[in-house]
């Protein structure tokens, strides 16, 4: 077959074979009869075949045309089946969805909402990937990522700010009596110096008098456990609550933005649209607690 044959002409040729009339084919396909005539002529030229002959009443298939139509019906039917199956797959809310986030967002917030998602869409296969590194949507390392800052460079990423998360002062029960004016005299927990730029560490650096930091860590989960053990006071996300040996001693002192990242193509696939909507709704339902407006 010639390389310049237009596959879009197959349904046109099939329709003309059925009707035997340019005008009837035009009405069926919603195009001018002149367009039908021009496209048939172009197809015959590209194929170097005569597909139709015209007698006094109608267009009739040549022997070569009959062979073309016999195969063309199968090809066109397979294409339609392919498109229908692809559309159904795109609309189906089933299959794997990988969500990357900092571990505390899973542990203290999102996992409690996953059962409702599973009940609503039981065919979903949700993967929660606890990590803070920048994932590549170009390389499809994740389908969604929840981050506290947008990525600097990823051509495939679609970014949407969900809202904010508040950070408040927490401590073990033995510090619960310490008034705000006395915070500067207490031991505090902090991240390693390499993380001095994050907003919560900048807030800590501004406390007066300059606080003593007997313990530095490189993960939030370690800081939470050290705070619970009584090693010092800490600025932690408001979603930590006051259970498991932690006491919240303030309202929100710092706010950080929460971003939902996804691949630009995710909006055209059913399961990704469903999960994106679920993440947005879960944030809205949890916003007061996340921002520290109410005690979780």
Question: Describe it for me?
Answer:
Pfam families: HTH_1 (PF00126), LysR_substrate (PF03466). This is LysR family transcriptional regulator. The chain is of the alpha/beta class and 296 residues long. It has nine helices and eleven strands. It folds into three domains: 85 residues, Arc Repressor Mutant, subunit A (Orthogonal Bundle), CATH 1.10.10; 96 residues, D-Maltodextrin-Binding Protein, domain 2 (3-Layer(aba) Sandwich), CATH 3.40.190.10; 92 residues, D-Maltodextrin-Binding Protein, domain 2. The strands form three sheets. Strands 3, 4, 5, 6, 9, 10 and 11 form a seven-stranded mixed sheet that branches. Strand 7, helix 7 and strand 8 form a beta-alpha-beta unit. Helix 1 crosses helix 4.
What key phrases describe this protein's structure?
two-stranded antiparallel sheet, DNA-binding, D-Maltodextrin-Binding Protein, domain 2, 296 residues, single chain, Arc Repressor Mutant, subunit A, transcription, LysR_subst-bd, alpha/beta, LysR_HTH_N, 7-stranded mixed sheet
Question: How would you summarize this macromolecular structure in one to three sentences?
Answer:
With 296 residues, the protein is of the alpha/beta class.
